[in-house]
Amino acid sequence: MSAVVLRSRILSNKCRSKITNRRFLSSGVDSSSSNPSRESIIASQSTLSDQSEVPPPPAPEAAPQASGGKAWSFLKYGLIAAITGTAGYAGYLSYKCSYEEVDQKAKALRAAANFAPSEDASAVDKYQGLLYSTAMAVPAKALESYLDLRRLVEENVLEFTEPTSEKLLPDLHPQEQHVFTLVLDLNETLLYTDWKRERGWRTFKRPGVDAFLEHLAKYYEIVVYSDQMNMYVDPVCERLDPNHCIRYRLSRGDTKYQNGKHYRDLSKLNRDPAKILYVSAHAFESSLQPENCVPIKPFKLEGEDTLDTALLDLIPFLEYVARNSPPDIRQVLQSYERKDIAKEFLERSKEYQRRKQEQRQQQGRFWRR
């Protein structure tokens, strides 16, 4: 019995020792296996970080996107070409045609945009008419916008290109309806303005201008018409004409600006064109009515200009016109064919006196017989 008990104790002790050994081994395996797991986690994290630093390869472009880009570029350049062509055509119309001409040509386009098929037309014709009117609506609307913009621009431009009024002079007194209007230019006609470094600006009166104004003021309505600013014309005329022989003064604001130059528009003077004479050193170049021009030698204070007598030489012709009152002065001036009127009139006067003297001599011979 005692031997059996002893054997059982020995067996139990062996079992306990085996169990403890197993626990120890299992704990060692766990502890040793825990480190590799941690190392594997760290290694995996480093691998992921390394992979995140490397940029991914570019994705290849798809064929549909390339075709879409070409279509967009074609549409863009087509739109730019259409806008450029429209702007160029609008500029050509603005240069070549007046507003009234463009408005006249636009009537056909307006009619096309407002096209309406008849009630008895077929469905196909109605559909085609609807498409046609719809297609013409956009160009018609664009043309209307162009005409509105051009009208607005021309109205603003006219303030700077046209004279300030349709009637630059007041109505003539009823008792002076027979009086001729003598329009005089200022620079190089009645005076000369010069500038030099040592003395600045100076204005010189033309020889004989005082006698010219005083004598012709008895026969004419004298008007000064200059392309200079009124701030220059007014004080110069005050010094030039202390006796107030000049009735009216017109300056740059009363001229017509055309082709980069200021022109005298005699049709705006509110006077009969058949009774207007325009005396200027640049008459034909500065007036819109060359048939009313009386050219005169320019006064520039050079050489023998100090002995200039052009104004005094012109008095006999102007006095003759005022005394005889021809029905249309334009026909008289046309007969001179743009020659020096003062010299030509003197020669004609001499020729007339010679013929008259011959007639008197012939009459005397007749009575002697």
Automatic annotation (TrEMBL):
Membrane topology: Single-pass membrane protein
Gene3D superfamilies, per the entry: HAD superfamily/HAD-like
SUPFAM superfamilies xref list: HAD-like
Keyword Membrane attributed: yes
CDD domains: HAD_FCP1-like
Skewed-composition ranges (Low complexity): 26-44
Any one GO biological process: protein transport
Annotated localization: Mitochondrion inner membrane
Domain FCP1 homology: 175-321
Protein name (database record): Mitochondrial import inner membrane translocase subunit TIM50
Organism from which the protein derives: Hibiscus trionum (Flower of an hour)
Organism ancestry: Eukaryota, Viridiplantae, Streptophyta, Embryophyta, Tracheophyta
